[in-house]
Amino acid sequence: MDGSSQRGGKPHTRRLGKLSACLVVASLSASVPAVAQQQDQASPAAGKKDVVRIGPAESGKPWPPIDEAAAEAAAAQERAHAEREAAAARERDEIRAQLSTLRSDLESERVARTAAEQSLATRVESIGAKASEAPPSVGSARLGLGLTGFAQGDLVVRQSSVDQLNPSGAPLNQELFQIRRARLRATVDRWWVAGAIELDGNTVNGPQARLIGAEASLKWPPERGNPVPIVMATMGLFKIPFGFEIGQSDRERLFIDRTTATRALFPGEYDVGARLQGGWRVFRYAVAVQNGNPMGDRAFPVRDPNAAKDVSGRVGVDVPMAPGFWVAGGASGLRGTGFHAGTAATKAVVQWSDTNGNGAPDPGETVIVPGAAAQPSQNFTRFAFGGDLRLGLTMPKLGATMIYGEVVLAKNMDRAILPADPVSFSRDYREFGVYGGLTQELGPSAMVGVRYDFYNPDADSTNQVMGAQLPTALSYQTLAIAAALRGPSGRLIAEFDLNRNHNGRDIQGNPANLADNAFFVRGEVSF
Predict the structure, then answer these.
(1) How far is Cα 189 from Cα 222, in angstroms, rounded to an integer?
(2) Counting beta carbons within 10 angstroms of the beta carbon of residue 305, is it exposed (0 to 12), middle (13 to 18) or buried (19 or more)?
(3) Region of residue 455 (left: phi > 0; alpha: psi -120 to 50; beta: else)
(4) Which of 69-95 are b and which e, b meaning 16 or more Cβ less than 10 Å from the residue's Cβ?
(5) Which of 130, 288, 467, 502 is the most exposed place for a label (fewest CB within 10 A)?
(6) CB within 8 A of 471, min separation 6: which ones?
(7) Positions of E strands within 159-230
(8) Are 192 and 217 in contact (CB under 8 A)?
(9) What distance in Å separates the CA atoms of residue 512 and residue 475, rounded to the nearest whole number?
(10) DSSP label of 396
(11) Paired residues of 154 in beta bridges
């Protein structure tokens, strides 16, 4: 074949060359390893490395040369495509796994929701059945009426009990059954107003029924059911706002009675007057102006023999520190005016004393007692300051733990145990009281507690011993240990009190301990 024929070529020859080149490129990925192997086996003198010839497409005609760069690019593209396919396959597998997990979770949720709906329907049916069996509700003229109450019956065993009468004729026996409290409380809570009436019956000093609480209040903001409004103004018969123990409900307290200091300084807890109280966030406050003669006052219970009023108040905080843990406390103060009753005028009288026992007046046995002028009544100042602190912790399954305590310093405040009368004794009485306690719930059905309290009604008391005035102690100490079984509507409480006092006398006439340990069993029902 001549040169011109080779340069120009016939048309079918040129088309065959192009088709051959396309076939070579298409089979590049398969032929590159073979070419590389042929290159590795070829001798160095075989020719240039950038040109490889493969057998002729037709007899007597060579294949065109192959570009290695294009072959490598095609191989890289193929590898990238394979990697993308593998990544897509992995992603599809992951999506399928996630879809399978979601289907399983949805099925579990559907089963749980169905069970919850069935349980709720059962509870609704049970509540409806109980409601149909319940007694009729209390009717009222206005909305927001609440009616609550409780009754406490006690068995008392006291070491100091004797089968005798005191000089006033009251029995000294202290081993008995008694109704300690039987309370009925009606409340109303509207948007702007609130009120309460509370009645009490007991047999402590014989059967008696009395009004123990009556409150009429205005509050702001106008909100129903808010236990701590910002401002609430009250007039009526209510508890003295001092410390923690006075305000604690008798149906919530574990121990049979309040501490000795509280019963001496604030006997009966309730007094008549006006009060302003409220709270904002964690802060609490209360201030009151009252008559100054509480319900348990020995001389003038819930009456005021003088025009002066007692002013008392407390400021405090109630802070939730963490889930299940809280701290509360406050400072209290009271300033008031006590009353010393005067005496009426007396006439001179002749007094006969039959010293020889012969039944006839003899010389020297009659004396004239001169008359005395009337003595006017007098007022005296009294005050008290105190602080209280409580720590609470709620533990799952076990219940709530509370550690609490209070301290009180007072002057001329005792109105029950050793009533202060600085006018008669020509000096003031300094009182001091302190207590600390711990209560622990044992699940929903039991509770235990221990409490120690100390009270001195006269820190400056003295006693005459062989003509000399010596300091003496009049303090009271009590260690109370209590346990309770609790139910939804009642409690059964047992308490032992280890008492120490100075009500006895030793052979020299000095104050000594009078054995007065006590044991109580209380049954309580509430509604």
Answers:
(1) 10
(2) middle
(3) beta
(4) eebeeeeeeeeeeeeeeeeeeeeeeee
(5) 467
(6) 460, 461, 462, 463
(7) 176-189, 193-202, 208-220
(8) no
(9) 11
(10) T
(11) 178, 522
E strand or H helix at 75: helix 68-133
Average pLDDT along the chain: 85
Read off the pLDDT of residues 250-282 as tens digits, 9 standing for 90 and up.
Answer: 999 999 999 999 999 999 999 999 999 999 999
How many degrees, rounded to 5, is the angle at CA 207 between CA 203 and CA 213? 80
Strands 176-189 and 476-487: unpaired
198-237: burial string, b at 16+ Cβ within 10 Å, e else: bbbebeeeeeeeeebbbbebebeeeeeeeeebeebebebb
Which is nearest to 271 in space by CA: 314, 304, 316, 232? 304
Q: Is beta strand 504-505 parallel, antiparallel or unpaired with respect to 511-512?
A: antiparallel
- Neighbouring CB atoms inside 10 A of 363's CB total 5
Judge whether 458 and 430 are in contact, CB under 8 Å: yes
pLDDT tier at 1, thresholds 50, 70, 90? very low
71-86 pLDDT, tens digit each: 888 888 888 888 888 8
pLDDT of residue 506: 77
Which residues, listed in sequence order, are joined to residue 469 by a DSSP beta bridge? 464
Question: In one letter, which amino acid is 180?
Answer: R
Given a contact cutoff of 8 angstroms between Cβ atoms, the answer to whether 310 and 291 are in contact is yes
Strand pairing class (462-465; 468-471): antiparallel
Average pLDDT on 209-219 reads: 95
Percentage of the residues of the chain whose pLDDT score is greater than 90: 57
Please give, one letter per residue, the 3-state secondary structure of 230-275: CEEEEEEEEECCCCCCCCCCCCCCCCCCCCHHHHHHCCCCEEEEEE
Please state, in angstroms and rounded to a whole number, the distance separating the CA atoms of residues 64 and 52: 9
Report pLDDT digits (tens) over 216-255: 999 998 776 667 899 999 999 999 999 999 999 999 999 9
Give the pTM.
0.72
Q: Which residues contact 339 (CB under 8 A, 6 or more apart)?
A: 299, 300, 305, 306, 377, 378, 379, 380
Residue given tokens 């009251």 in the structure block: 170
Identify whether the C-beta of residue 337 lies closer than 8 Å to the C-beta of residue 392: no
User: Which domains, ranges and CATH numbers included, belong to the chain?
Assistant: 9-66 (no CATH), 151-338+379-526 (2.40.160.10)
Q: For residue 207, what pLDDT is reported?
A: 93
Q: Per the structure block, which two tokens stand in for 115?
A: 């069970």
Nearest to 241 by CA among 327, 320, 310: 310
Alpha-carbon distance of 79 to 93, in angstroms, equals: 21
User: Do residues 190 and 142 touch, judged by C-beta distance below 8 A?
Assistant: yes
Among residues 316, 260, 264, the alpha carbon closest in space to that of 287 is found at 316
